[in-house]
Amino acid sequence: MSKSGRVQNKAPAPVQITAEQILRDVSHLREKEYKPPLQGVADLEELQDYRLRKRKEFEDNIRKNRNLASNWVKYGQWEESQKDFPRARSVFERSLAVDYKNPSVWLRYAEMEMKNGFVNHARNIWDRAVTLLPRVDQFWYKYAYMEEMLENVAGARQVFMRWMDWAPGEQAWLSFIKMELRHNNVENARRIYEKFVYTIGSVKSWLKYAKFEEKVGRIDLARNVFERAVEFYGDQHPQEWVFLGFAQFEERCREHERARAIYRFALDKLPKGQATTLYKEYVTYEKKFGDKDGIENVITQKRRIQYDEEVAQNPHSYDTWFDYVRLEEENGDEEKVRDVYERAVACVPPVQEKRLWRRYIYLWIYYAVYEELNSKDMERARQIYKTALRIIPHQDFTFAKIWIMYAHFEIRQMNISDARKALGTAIGLCPKNKLFREYIAMEMQIGNIDRCRSLHEKYVEFSPENTHAWNEFADLEISLGEIERARALFELAVAQPTLDMPEAVWKAYIDMELEQEEWENVRQLYERLLEKTKHVKVWMSYAKAEVTAKDYSRARTVFDRAHTVLMEGEKKAERVTLLRAWKDFENEFGSEEQKKEVEAKMPEVVAKKRPVFDDNGNVKGHEHYNDFVFPEEKVGRYCSTLHIRPLFLHSHPR
Asked: Which residue numbers delimit the Pre-mRNA-splicing factor Syf1-like N-terminal HAT-repeats domain (predicted)?
């Protein structure tokens, strides 16, 4: 922008212009809309000249596009406005000669004749229109309406009868019927309905016919219409809405037995998937007029059919089978319950994958529990368990739950040997931790210690890395007072190359020695454990054990050793944790000098900041954090610290 175009004074103007003022100015400055002057006709010669110009204008438009119907219609309507009807008819006739298939020309032509009172001309035009274009419903409607408005009912009827010969749509028949009913010609309406239902053949047409007979008070004829409708569709194509309308008709007539019989007949005839609305209405009907048993039977039957359809579509939808079984169990029919269970367990998963078998196995479990608790058929329940165990592919996977439930079932039947046999077979075929634990727990309840030891030995042989197995075996020996055997088991456990939770074994071993107050053994175990790990919790536990032994000097030595090790490893957080525990120890058992010595080792908490890097390694900012600075560290080591007053750590409750 040039210097001359720049605004020198940027201060606000003394008079501000608002948007409202701008709009007001625009409206005032807007030019007025142009209106052509009114043209008056002074005499006949001037009128003739005006008509000549307009006709020439219309003729020119027609010559440009003679197929455009709007040109002809405007021309004819202008001639009509001039009251020159012969010329107007001539224009419309010329238009029809060009394109007689255009309905709008016929409509404007006939409306011109009707509007100006030329009834015969209009009747002639409608007659020609419906003859040439019989599929244009609007011609027939307007033709019949004109005759009816002229009170020529016979003529209107004749028009409708000519129209019906062309088999029009449903609305045309209904319009014919309504015309007859407006003039109280019920018999004529009935005859039209008779042709209507067989020509159209829709469910709605039959229902309208029956409703008509019911409305005029002919109940017998209405019932006959419904019966004929059922026969019309037959057994091959039964219609739900015909039966539903028939039943509701009988209900309105208070013929409840007839209505119930129709509902049941329809439910037997219709496919189950096509009777949804009928079922709902039947349930509603039974709630209003039936007894309690009838209502429950209807609801149960409806749900049973629904479940049958679902399992037919997907036989491996086990959740649907569970719902189906629950329905039959609530109904209380034992044979139906067993039938559903048998159908459900027959749907074996097609693939040998455990995730697909999980829901399926519960069908067998529920089946067995039902036979045991509800049917009291113990032999049948036993056979169900055995069949289920025979079906499961144990070489690929197994389910410990069903083995355990079978064993518990045999125990409830006082068959201890069969329960042992079941669990022994399970461990032999497909050993699992849960099977070992349940078998051992069963033998412990019985009190067979030798079997418990034998099972524990097999358990640790099967899963030597299982810490829980070693600890339970040792706990058994401790409970029996066999400390040497327990000590030997712990030695075997800690000697294993891999353990899932080695710290649990060491803790149990040390706790046993603590309970026996074997302090030297405890110290040896801690020293062996410290050879494997230098974790701060091990040091703190070691010191706590010395405190338990009331050897405070040894405990202080353990703290000092731990502090030295952690200081060399530069593990600040663990070192702080240790110093806090050491400080608590000295506060309880140490002298003032020893307290001051530990206090001198405590670090300061200093706030610092460090750079934060993005994914590309570039510095994108800084973050603040707290750092521990121990006394042996130099102050100049952290050059980017924030200048704040040092905070000293104090002991806090554990």
From this structure: 305-465
CATH 1.25.40.10, the chain: domain bounds: 348-463
Work out the burial of residue 588: count CB atoms within 10 Å of its CB; fewer than 13 is exposed, 13-18 middle, 19 or more buried: exposed
* Residue 638, pLDDT score: 43
d(Cα 478, Cα 511) in Å, to the nearest integer?
Answer: 12
CA 169 vs CA 172, 176, 232, 422: distances in Å: 6, 12, 20, 76
Looking at 318-377, list the stretches that DSSP marks H as alpha helix, in order from N- to C-terminal side: 318-331, 334-345, 354-373
Cα–Cα distance, 402 to 387 (Å, whole number): 11
**Architecture of the domain spanning 348-463:** Alpha Horseshoe (1.25)
d(CA 422, CA 380): 17
Spatial CA neighbour of 490 closest among 480, 505, 503, 475 = 505
What order of strands is seen across the sheet that includes strand 647-648? Answer: 619-629, 604-613, 647-648
- Work out the number of other CB atoms within 10 angstroms of the CB of residue 635: 10
CA gap 525, 513 in Å, rounded: 9
CB 356 within 8 A of CB 376: no
pLDDT at 644: 40
User: Containing H/E element for 607?
Assistant: strand 604-613
Q: Long-range contacts for 576-579 (Cβ within 8 Å, ≥24 apart)? A: 576/603, 576/628, 576/649, 577/536, 577/540, 578/536, 578/539, 578/540, 579/603, 579/649
Instruction: State the pTM of this model.
Output: 0.53
Alpha-carbon gap, residue 611 to 622, rounded angstroms? 4
Q: What is the DSSP letter of 433?
A: H
Nearest to 197 by CA among 183, 220, 177: 177
Nearest CA among 570, 567, 601, 607 for reference residue 586:
601
| 419 vs 66: CA distance, rounded Å | 103
Residue carrying structure tokens 């125990």: 411
The closest of 620, 577, 480, 610 to 585, measured between CA atoms, is: 577
Task: Identify residue 31 by its one-letter amino acid code.
Answer: E
Does residue 263 contact residue 279 with C-beta atoms inside 8 Å? no
- Taking the CA atoms of 236, 240, 245 and 251 in sequence, report the sign of the dihedral they define: positive
Residue whose token pair is 């494997």: 532
pLDDT at 545: 85
CB contact at 8 A, 126 and 142: yes
Residue type, 580: R
Amino acid type, 195: K
Buried-exposed string 4-32: b where 16+ CB fall within 10 A, e elsewhere: eeeeeeeeeeeeeeeeeeeeeeeeeeeee
| pLDDT < 70 stretches in the chain | 1-5, 7, 34, 272-273, 290-295, 569-570, 634-654
Helix (H) or strand (E) holding 623, with range, is: strand 619-629
- The rounded distance, in Å, linking the Cα atoms of 275 and 266 is 8
* H-helix or E-strand spanning residue 426: helix 416-429
CA distance 599 to 608: 23
Q: Rounded CA gap, 399 and 401, in Å?
A: 5
Q: Locate 418 and state its tokens.
A: 């069969």
- pLDDT on residue 126: 92
36 vs 332: CA distance, rounded Å: 94
- What region, left, alpha or beta, does residue 518 occupy, with left being phi > 0 and alpha being psi -120 to 50 degrees? beta
Phi then psi dihedrals of residue 549, to 5 deg: -80, 0
